[in-house]
Predict the 3D structure of the following.
Amino acid sequence: MLNYAVCEISGKQYKVIPGKSFEVSLQKEGDLIEAAVLLLSEDGKLKIGTPYLKEKITLKRIEDLKGAKIRVSKFHAKANYRKTIGYRSKLTKLVLNQKVVKK
């Protein structure tokens, strides 16, 4: 039984627990996403990759959403220059779809 895994998605590492969703900044299409596994904990035993394991995990896309708004302000003193912009990152909510897939 899979306890947890540490996988790499878009250059970032995430701890994946079965049944628990998490958010990533991912811009791929499709419902299923395959991720490379760095560390795997099954039945209390750890497998550590160098840097990756041969196993891969499949993640299911739940929804696409936007993150919190970040406001950035620029100004120059004594020059009457003020500029404010906002940014909301696009996030994807994922959950572990199935157990480890051997490659």
The two ends are 18 Å apart (CA to CA). Residues 31 and 61 are 5 Å apart (CA to CA). The chain has one domain: 2-101. Residues 2-101 form one domain.
